[in-house]
């Protein structure tokens, strides 16, 4: 097994502890009731009757059946077991708005899924096929569910999940009408591994055996798979007999590899995705009303770039805040009374991630100081609707805003630390009637 294979969504999280040295693991993100989010342990069909895959499901209200998107995650550097549960919440929300259910299975050995992660080193063809086993398991299970339209299914994936998606498409996938590949591939940081040629061989093999149409997205500033390699992989796939449309778009933020997980990615990937879905007979019109996130308002406590105005911080924390000011939005910066701090950039819910990391590293309550381009600090910061919880608020001098909203959670955190409740965040939105109904 090659331990340095990586391909993932790019997000940033940084934190600094003051006097507290017993950092705890970050809890899971809170569930979003607007999307009827639930997390299940889905049975796998790999031959191990006890193996289950941690799977996130989003879907509209009602019994269905709904068309389905199966979205597949990448691989972050390090231990796959330590990788958090992927949600692709911004992408998922857009599909739920259009009447889709969305499934995001964590594959074998990732996050809380059963089994152990394995790979075949530089044999990228085999790596893709191995991961595709779990995609087929998810498809088989989904097609037995009464809320799934078993004949209107899309399979998509980002990075390693994109490679696995294309590998899955090389075999018969009942009910699947098309594949979407967001920067699919797998890279090795080991100089002895010719991973580029391995990817070329993999896509050639998959193209020779796939009859499904596919749509590919690769950006100009993708740090993993650049434009030349993306074009080569598409050419290899098509020459072998596969059907692929490559959308080679320009630079996206700091790194186009994170397109599928970014709240700003929709404007890039939706126009061509809409055309693709229409061609293969999948719905594209909005039919479900889902409230957007409500941002924390500016408090006008200080100017955003007034580093000296931030409470609690020591010199190291003020230097970290200066670095934070150069980060991409969405972003958030949190502080603790003991001088600890954390910032989060890009990806899902940076406010929650910054607070969770700050709380875990400091052992004391943390509060948000800045979000995006505004200072939100005051004695009792309001809680945005997407973080709000029905639990009564606690004393703002001892519990931060998001901490109060997420109280009474996992066993690994004490009553005085940030906890995340596996409870709905906001009322689910009704399904809008389709025209003609």
TrEMBL record:
The keyword Transmembrane helix does not apply. Residues 1-23 form the signal peptide. Keywords: Hydrolase, Signal. This is Prolyl oligopeptidase family serine peptidase. GO terms for molecular function: carboxylic ester hydrolase activity. InterPro entries: AB_hydrolase_fold, FrsA_esterase, Xaa-Pro-like_dom. Residues 50-198 form the Xaa-Pro dipeptidyl-peptidase-like domain.
């Amino acid at each position: 097994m090659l331990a340095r294979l990586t391909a993932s969504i790019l997000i940033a999280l940084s934190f600094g502890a003051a006097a507290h040295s017993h950092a705890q693991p970050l809890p899971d993100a809170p569930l979003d009731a607007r999307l009827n989010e639930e997390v299940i342990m889905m049975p796998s069909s790999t031959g191990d009757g006890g193996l289950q895959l941690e799977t996130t499901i989003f879907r509209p209200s009602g019994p269905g059946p709904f068309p389905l998107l199966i979205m597949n995650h990448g691989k972050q550097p390090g231990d796959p077991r330590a990788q958090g549960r992927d949600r692709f919440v911004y992408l998922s929300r857009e599909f739920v708005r259009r009447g889709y259910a969305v499934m995001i299975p964590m594959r074998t050995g990732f996050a809380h899924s059963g089994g152990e992660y394995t790979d075949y080193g530089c044999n990228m063809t085999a790596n893709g096929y191995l991961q595709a086993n779990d995609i087929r398991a998810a498809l088989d299970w989904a097609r037995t569910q009464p809320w799934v339209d078993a004949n209107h299914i899309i399979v998509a994936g980002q990075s390693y999940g994109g490679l696995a998606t294309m590998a899955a498409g090389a075999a018969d996938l009942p009910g699947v009408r098309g594949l979407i590949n967001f920067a699919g591939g797998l890279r090795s940081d080991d100089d002895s591994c010719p991973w580029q040629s391995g990817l070329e061989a993999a896509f050639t093999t998959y193209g020779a055996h796939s009859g499904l149409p596919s749509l590919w997205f690769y950006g100009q500033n993708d740090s993993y798979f650049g434009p030349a390699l993306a074009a080569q992989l598409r050419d290899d796939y098509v020459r072998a007999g596969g059907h692929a449309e490559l959308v080679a778009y320009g630079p996206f933020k700091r790194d186009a590899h994170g397109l599928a997980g970014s709240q700003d990615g929709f404007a890039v990937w939706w126009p061509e995705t809409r055309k693709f879905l229409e061609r293969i007979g999948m719905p594209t019109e909005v039919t479900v009303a889902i409230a957007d996130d409500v941002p924390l308002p500016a408090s006008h406590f200080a100017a955003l770039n007034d580093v000296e105005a931030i409470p609690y911080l020591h010199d190291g924390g003020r230097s970290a805040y200066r670095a934070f000011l150069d980060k991409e939005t969405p972003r958030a910066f949190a502080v603790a009374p003991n001088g600890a701090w954390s910032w989060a950039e890009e990806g899902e819910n940076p406010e929650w991630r910054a607070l969770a990391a700050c709380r875990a590293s400091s052992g004391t309550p943390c509060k948000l100081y800045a979000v995006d381009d505004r200072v939100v600090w005051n004695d009792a910061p309001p809680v945005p609707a997407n973080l709000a919880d029905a639990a009564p608020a606690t004393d703002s001098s001892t519990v931060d805003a998001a901490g109060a909203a997420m109280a009474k959670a996992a066993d690994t955190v004490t009553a005085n630390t940030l906890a995340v409740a596996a409870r709905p965040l906001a009322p689910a939105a009704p399904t809008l009637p389709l025209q003609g109904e």
